[in-house]
Amino acid sequence: AVVSIDGERVPPERAVVSVFDRGFLYGDSVYEVLRTYGGRAFEGEEHLSRLARSAERIGLALPWPRERLSAEVARVVAASRPAGPDEEPPAPDAAPWNVGERTVRLVVTRGSGELGLDPALAADPKVILLALPLQAPPLAAYRQGVGAVIVGETAVGRPREPSAKTGAHLAHVLALRQARAAGAHEALTVDRDGFVTEGASSNVFLVQGGAVTTPPLDAGLLPGVTRAVVLALAREAGLTVREARPRPEALAGADELFLTSTAREILPVTRLGDRPVGSGAPGEVTRLLHRRFRARADAFARG
Ligand code: PLP
Protein backbone atom coordinates (compact mmCIF):
# COMPACT_ATOMS: atom_id res chain seq x y z
CA ALA A 1 0.00 0.00 0.00
CA VAL A 2 1.03 3.59 -0.55
CA VAL A 3 -0.08 5.94 2.23
CA SER A 4 -0.01 9.69 2.33
CA ILE A 5 -0.94 11.70 5.44
CA ASP A 6 -1.28 15.47 5.00
CA GLY A 7 0.70 15.21 1.78
CA GLU A 8 3.58 13.19 3.21
CA ARG A 9 4.31 9.68 2.10
CA VAL A 10 4.40 7.40 5.18
CA PRO A 11 5.44 3.72 5.23
CA PRO A 12 2.25 1.68 5.81
CA GLU A 13 3.52 0.16 9.07
CA ARG A 14 4.03 3.67 10.48
CA ALA A 15 0.84 5.14 9.05
CA VAL A 16 -1.12 5.86 12.24
CA VAL A 17 -3.70 8.41 13.31
CA SER A 18 -4.13 9.84 16.81
CA VAL A 19 -6.53 8.21 19.28
CA PHE A 20 -7.91 11.75 19.70
CA ASP A 21 -8.84 11.95 16.03
CA ARG A 22 -12.57 12.54 15.61
CA GLY A 23 -12.71 10.22 12.64
CA PHE A 24 -11.77 7.42 15.03
CA LEU A 25 -13.84 8.66 17.98
CA TYR A 26 -17.06 9.71 16.27
CA GLY A 27 -16.88 8.73 12.60
CA ASP A 28 -16.48 12.50 12.08
CA SER A 29 -14.93 12.23 8.64
CA VAL A 30 -15.79 12.12 4.96
CA TYR A 31 -14.27 9.86 2.35
CA GLU A 32 -14.26 8.67 -1.23
CA VAL A 33 -13.23 5.42 -2.84
CA LEU A 34 -11.94 5.75 -6.38
CA ARG A 35 -10.57 3.17 -8.75
CA THR A 36 -8.26 3.24 -11.72
CA TYR A 37 -8.49 1.95 -15.28
CA GLY A 38 -5.17 1.91 -17.07
CA GLY A 39 -3.77 3.61 -13.97
CA ARG A 40 -6.05 6.66 -14.23
CA ALA A 41 -8.71 7.49 -11.65
CA PHE A 42 -12.14 6.93 -13.25
CA GLU A 43 -14.76 9.67 -12.77
CA GLY A 44 -12.24 11.48 -10.57
CA GLU A 45 -14.02 14.81 -10.83
CA GLU A 46 -17.34 13.24 -9.82
CA HIS A 47 -15.76 11.66 -6.77
CA LEU A 48 -14.15 14.95 -5.72
CA SER A 49 -17.45 16.78 -6.22
CA ARG A 50 -19.17 14.26 -3.99
CA LEU A 51 -16.42 14.65 -1.38
CA ALA A 52 -17.00 18.41 -1.41
CA ARG A 53 -20.77 17.90 -1.03
CA SER A 54 -20.27 15.38 1.82
CA ALA A 55 -17.94 17.83 3.59
CA GLU A 56 -20.40 20.69 3.14
CA ARG A 57 -23.20 18.52 4.47
CA ILE A 58 -21.35 17.99 7.76
CA GLY A 59 -19.82 21.48 7.91
CA LEU A 60 -16.23 20.30 7.47
CA ALA A 61 -13.98 22.77 5.67
CA LEU A 62 -11.77 20.74 3.33
CA PRO A 63 -8.21 21.81 4.13
CA TRP A 64 -7.01 21.47 0.53
CA PRO A 65 -8.32 22.91 -2.72
CA ARG A 66 -9.70 20.46 -5.21
CA GLU A 67 -6.67 20.63 -7.54
CA ARG A 68 -4.38 19.53 -4.73
CA LEU A 69 -6.67 16.61 -3.84
CA SER A 70 -6.78 15.58 -7.47
CA ALA A 71 -2.99 15.82 -7.83
CA GLU A 72 -2.47 13.78 -4.65
CA VAL A 73 -4.78 11.02 -5.96
CA ALA A 74 -2.64 10.84 -9.12
CA ARG A 75 0.54 10.93 -7.05
CA VAL A 76 -0.37 7.97 -4.80
CA VAL A 77 -1.55 5.96 -7.81
CA ALA A 78 1.71 6.62 -9.65
CA ALA A 79 3.70 5.66 -6.54
CA SER A 80 1.82 2.37 -6.24
CA ARG A 81 2.26 1.24 -9.85
CA PRO A 82 3.64 -0.95 -11.24
CA ALA A 83 3.34 -3.55 -8.50
CA GLY A 84 6.33 -3.81 -6.15
CA PRO A 85 8.06 -7.12 -5.39
CA ASP A 86 6.18 -7.46 -2.08
CA GLU A 87 2.77 -7.29 -3.75
CA GLU A 88 0.72 -10.46 -3.94
CA PRO A 89 0.33 -11.74 -7.51
CA PRO A 90 -3.18 -11.18 -8.95
CA ALA A 91 -5.74 -13.79 -7.91
CA PRO A 92 -6.07 -16.44 -10.65
CA ASP A 93 -9.85 -15.90 -10.73
CA ALA A 94 -9.62 -12.09 -11.01
CA ALA A 95 -11.61 -10.41 -13.77
CA PRO A 96 -8.89 -9.60 -16.34
CA TRP A 97 -9.82 -5.92 -16.63
CA ASN A 98 -9.06 -5.43 -12.91
CA VAL A 99 -5.55 -6.86 -12.86
CA GLY A 100 -2.96 -4.26 -11.87
CA GLU A 101 -5.56 -1.59 -11.11
CA ARG A 102 -5.74 0.39 -7.89
CA THR A 103 -8.25 1.55 -5.32
CA VAL A 104 -7.67 4.93 -3.76
CA ARG A 105 -9.32 5.72 -0.45
CA LEU A 106 -9.30 9.42 0.29
CA VAL A 107 -10.30 10.30 3.86
CA VAL A 108 -10.62 13.72 5.42
CA THR A 109 -11.21 13.73 9.18
CA ARG A 110 -12.21 16.79 11.15
CA GLY A 111 -9.02 16.20 13.14
CA SER A 112 -8.44 16.10 16.87
CA GLY A 113 -8.79 18.34 19.86
CA GLU A 114 -10.23 18.21 23.34
CA LEU A 115 -12.66 15.34 23.79
CA GLY A 116 -16.25 16.30 23.14
CA LEU A 117 -18.79 16.09 20.35
CA ASP A 118 -18.69 19.81 19.56
CA PRO A 119 -17.04 20.11 16.14
CA ALA A 120 -15.60 23.49 17.17
CA LEU A 121 -13.14 21.55 19.36
CA ALA A 122 -11.42 20.13 16.26
CA ALA A 123 -8.36 21.97 15.12
CA ASP A 124 -6.41 20.05 12.55
CA PRO A 125 -8.29 18.29 9.75
CA LYS A 126 -6.29 15.45 8.27
CA VAL A 127 -6.09 14.34 4.66
CA ILE A 128 -5.25 10.67 4.29
CA LEU A 129 -4.88 8.75 1.04
CA LEU A 130 -4.33 5.04 0.61
CA ALA A 131 -3.59 3.40 -2.73
CA LEU A 132 -4.08 -0.36 -2.67
CA PRO A 133 -4.41 -3.16 -5.20
CA LEU A 134 -8.03 -3.12 -6.34
CA GLN A 135 -10.29 -5.56 -4.55
CA ALA A 136 -13.11 -6.52 -6.87
CA PRO A 137 -15.37 -9.53 -7.35
CA PRO A 138 -13.88 -12.52 -9.21
CA LEU A 139 -14.88 -13.18 -12.81
CA ALA A 140 -17.21 -15.99 -11.68
CA ALA A 141 -19.33 -13.46 -9.76
CA TYR A 142 -20.06 -11.63 -13.05
CA ARG A 143 -20.80 -14.87 -14.89
CA GLN A 144 -23.02 -16.45 -12.22
CA GLY A 145 -24.25 -13.48 -10.22
CA VAL A 146 -24.20 -13.13 -6.44
CA GLY A 147 -26.69 -13.43 -3.59
CA ALA A 148 -28.23 -10.57 -1.64
CA VAL A 149 -30.49 -10.38 1.38
CA ILE A 150 -32.93 -7.71 2.43
CA VAL A 151 -32.25 -6.17 5.83
CA GLY A 152 -34.66 -3.85 7.68
CA GLU A 153 -33.32 -0.54 8.89
CA THR A 154 -35.05 -1.28 12.18
CA ALA A 155 -32.62 -4.17 12.70
CA VAL A 156 -29.40 -2.30 12.03
CA GLY A 157 -30.15 1.38 12.57
CA ARG A 158 -30.46 4.16 10.10
CA PRO A 159 -27.41 5.40 8.24
CA ARG A 160 -26.69 8.77 9.88
CA GLU A 161 -26.37 10.88 6.77
CA PRO A 162 -27.28 8.63 3.88
CA SER A 163 -26.53 11.24 1.22
CA ALA A 164 -23.03 12.07 2.55
CA LYS A 165 -20.16 9.60 2.43
CA THR A 166 -19.07 9.85 6.07
CA GLY A 167 -17.04 7.54 8.28
CA ALA A 168 -20.18 6.81 10.36
CA HIS A 169 -20.93 3.57 8.56
CA LEU A 170 -22.10 1.33 11.40
CA ALA A 171 -25.60 0.64 10.05
CA HIS A 172 -24.03 -0.64 6.83
CA VAL A 173 -21.45 -2.67 8.72
CA LEU A 174 -24.25 -4.38 10.64
CA ALA A 175 -26.32 -4.91 7.52
CA LEU A 176 -23.38 -6.55 5.77
CA ARG A 177 -22.76 -8.67 8.85
CA GLN A 178 -26.28 -10.07 8.45
CA ALA A 179 -25.71 -10.69 4.75
CA ARG A 180 -22.46 -12.55 5.35
CA ALA A 181 -24.10 -14.65 8.10
CA ALA A 182 -26.63 -15.70 5.44
CA GLY A 183 -23.86 -16.47 2.94
CA ALA A 184 -24.82 -13.50 0.74
CA HIS A 185 -22.58 -10.97 -1.00
CA GLU A 186 -24.59 -7.85 -0.20
CA ALA A 187 -27.31 -6.52 2.11
CA LEU A 188 -30.06 -4.37 0.63
CA THR A 189 -31.58 -2.06 3.20
CA VAL A 190 -35.26 -1.29 3.59
CA ASP A 191 -36.23 1.98 5.22
CA ARG A 192 -38.89 2.51 7.86
CA ASP A 193 -41.55 3.07 5.21
CA GLY A 194 -40.79 -0.33 3.72
CA PHE A 195 -38.93 0.80 0.60
CA VAL A 196 -35.63 -0.61 -0.61
CA THR A 197 -32.98 2.11 -0.66
CA GLU A 198 -29.51 0.72 -1.51
CA GLY A 199 -26.89 -1.86 -0.65
CA ALA A 200 -24.47 -1.61 2.26
CA SER A 201 -21.86 -0.33 -0.20
CA SER A 202 -23.69 -0.26 -3.53
CA ASN A 203 -26.75 1.05 -5.32
CA VAL A 204 -29.41 -1.32 -6.55
CA PHE A 205 -31.26 -1.58 -9.87
CA LEU A 206 -34.08 -3.85 -10.95
CA VAL A 207 -35.21 -4.78 -14.44
CA GLN A 208 -38.84 -5.60 -15.15
CA GLY A 209 -40.23 -6.06 -18.65
CA GLY A 210 -37.06 -4.49 -20.08
CA ALA A 211 -37.43 -1.28 -18.02
CA VAL A 212 -34.76 -0.31 -15.52
CA THR A 213 -35.68 1.07 -12.07
CA THR A 214 -33.50 2.41 -9.28
CA PRO A 215 -34.51 4.32 -6.13
CA PRO A 216 -34.33 8.12 -6.50
CA LEU A 217 -31.72 10.24 -4.73
CA ASP A 218 -34.30 11.63 -2.31
CA ALA A 219 -34.99 8.11 -1.03
CA GLY A 220 -32.10 8.63 1.41
CA LEU A 221 -29.23 6.90 -0.35
CA LEU A 222 -25.72 7.66 -1.40
CA PRO A 223 -25.64 9.24 -4.88
CA GLY A 224 -23.39 6.58 -6.38
CA VAL A 225 -20.97 7.73 -9.05
CA THR A 226 -21.47 4.39 -10.80
CA ARG A 227 -25.25 4.73 -10.45
CA ALA A 228 -25.09 7.98 -12.44
CA VAL A 229 -22.89 6.41 -15.15
CA VAL A 230 -25.26 3.44 -15.44
CA LEU A 231 -28.37 5.64 -15.64
CA ALA A 232 -26.73 7.55 -18.50
CA LEU A 233 -25.72 4.32 -20.27
CA ALA A 234 -29.24 2.91 -19.90
CA ARG A 235 -30.75 6.05 -21.43
CA GLU A 236 -28.18 5.99 -24.25
CA ALA A 237 -29.16 2.37 -24.91
CA GLY A 238 -32.77 3.52 -25.36
CA LEU A 239 -34.06 1.63 -22.33
CA THR A 240 -36.98 2.88 -20.27
CA VAL A 241 -35.50 4.25 -17.05
CA ARG A 242 -37.42 5.02 -13.88
CA GLU A 243 -36.32 6.43 -10.57
CA ALA A 244 -38.85 5.03 -8.12
CA ARG A 245 -38.81 3.49 -4.67
CA PRO A 246 -39.35 -0.27 -4.93
CA ARG A 247 -40.82 -2.52 -2.24
CA PRO A 248 -38.98 -5.76 -1.42
CA GLU A 249 -41.72 -7.66 -3.31
CA ALA A 250 -40.82 -5.78 -6.50
CA LEU A 251 -37.23 -6.97 -6.13
CA ALA A 252 -38.33 -10.52 -5.42
CA GLY A 253 -40.52 -10.49 -8.55
CA ALA A 254 -38.03 -8.70 -10.84
CA ASP A 255 -36.70 -10.27 -14.03
CA GLU A 256 -33.21 -9.07 -13.17
CA LEU A 257 -31.42 -7.33 -10.32
CA PHE A 258 -27.99 -5.80 -10.22
CA LEU A 259 -25.71 -3.76 -7.96
CA THR A 260 -23.48 -0.86 -8.94
CA SER A 261 -20.40 0.48 -7.20
CA THR A 262 -16.97 1.79 -8.08
CA ALA A 263 -15.15 -1.51 -7.58
CA ARG A 264 -17.97 -3.80 -8.75
CA GLU A 265 -19.08 -1.86 -11.84
CA ILE A 266 -22.35 -3.74 -12.59
CA LEU A 267 -22.75 -6.98 -10.67
CA PRO A 268 -25.71 -9.30 -11.30
CA VAL A 269 -27.73 -10.44 -8.27
CA THR A 270 -29.17 -13.86 -9.08
CA ARG A 271 -30.39 -14.89 -5.62
CA LEU A 272 -32.45 -12.83 -3.20
CA GLY A 273 -32.66 -14.52 0.19
CA ASP A 274 -33.07 -18.19 -0.69
CA ARG A 275 -34.94 -17.63 -3.99
CA PRO A 276 -33.54 -17.20 -7.49
CA VAL A 277 -34.04 -13.85 -9.22
CA GLY A 278 -35.71 -14.27 -12.63
CA SER A 279 -34.14 -17.22 -14.40
CA GLY A 280 -31.45 -17.49 -11.72
CA ALA A 281 -28.75 -16.38 -14.19
CA PRO A 282 -27.50 -12.87 -15.10
CA GLY A 283 -30.15 -11.29 -17.31
CA GLU A 284 -29.96 -9.79 -20.78
CA VAL A 285 -30.34 -6.14 -19.77
CA THR A 286 -27.76 -6.48 -17.00
CA ARG A 287 -25.28 -8.02 -19.46
CA LEU A 288 -25.99 -5.38 -22.09
CA LEU A 289 -25.37 -2.57 -19.59
CA HIS A 290 -22.23 -4.21 -18.30
CA ARG A 291 -20.88 -4.58 -21.87
CA ARG A 292 -21.52 -0.88 -22.42
CA PHE A 293 -19.94 -0.02 -19.08
CA ARG A 294 -16.86 -2.11 -19.92
CA ALA A 295 -16.56 -0.37 -23.29
CA ARG A 296 -16.69 3.03 -21.56
CA ALA A 297 -14.07 1.99 -18.98
CA ASP A 298 -11.80 0.45 -21.64
CA ALA A 299 -11.96 3.66 -23.69
CA PHE A 300 -11.06 5.63 -20.56
CA ALA A 301 -8.14 3.27 -19.81
CA ARG A 302 -6.76 3.89 -23.33
CA GLY A 303 -6.93 7.62 -22.67
N1 PLP B 1 -24.15 3.27 -1.48
C1 PLP B 1 -23.33 3.23 -0.41
C2 PLP B 1 -23.90 3.26 0.96
C3 PLP B 1 -21.92 3.16 -0.62
O1 PLP B 1 -21.11 3.13 0.45
C4 PLP B 1 -21.42 3.12 -1.94
C5 PLP B 1 -19.98 3.05 -2.21
O2 PLP B 1 -19.20 2.49 -1.50
C6 PLP B 1 -22.31 3.14 -3.02
C7 PLP B 1 -23.67 3.25 -2.75
C8 PLP B 1 -21.82 3.10 -4.45
O3 PLP B 1 -21.23 4.34 -4.80
P1 PLP B 1 -20.15 4.48 -5.98
O4 PLP B 1 -20.79 3.97 -7.22
O5 PLP B 1 -19.89 5.93 -6.02
O6 PLP B 1 -18.97 3.66 -5.58
Short description:
This protein folds into two domains: 2-136, Aminotransferase class 4, branched-chain amino acid transferase, N-terminal domain (D-amino Acid Aminotransferase, Chain A, domain 1); 140-302, D-amino Acid Aminotransferase, Chain A, domain 2, CATH 3.20.10.10.
Structure explained in plain terms:
The mean pLDDT is 95. This protein has 303 residues and is of the alpha+beta class. Strand 1 (2-5) and strand 2 form a beta hairpin. The chain folds into two domains: 2-136, Aminotransferase class 4, branched-chain amino acid transferase, N-terminal domain (D-amino Acid Aminotransferase, Chain A, domain 1, 2-Layer Sandwich); 140-302, Alpha-Beta Barrel (D-amino Acid Aminotransferase, Chain A, domain 2). The protein is built from nine helices and 15 strands. The structure holds pyridoxal-5'-phosphate (PLP). Pyridoxal-5'-phosphate (PLP) binds next to helix 7 and strand 13. The site of pyridoxal-5'-phosphate has 14 residues, from helix 7 and strand 13.
Distance between the termini: 25 Å
CATH topology of the largest domain: D-amino Acid Aminotransferase, Chain A, domain 2
Largest sheet features: 9 strands, mixed
Number of helices: 9
State the CATH architecture of the largest domain: Alpha-Beta Barrel
Number of strands: 15
Q: Per DSSP, what share of the residues sits in E-state strands of 2 or more residues? A: 25-35%
CATH hierarchy, class of the largest domain? Alpha Beta
Ranges where pLDDT stays below 50 over 5 or more residues in a row are none
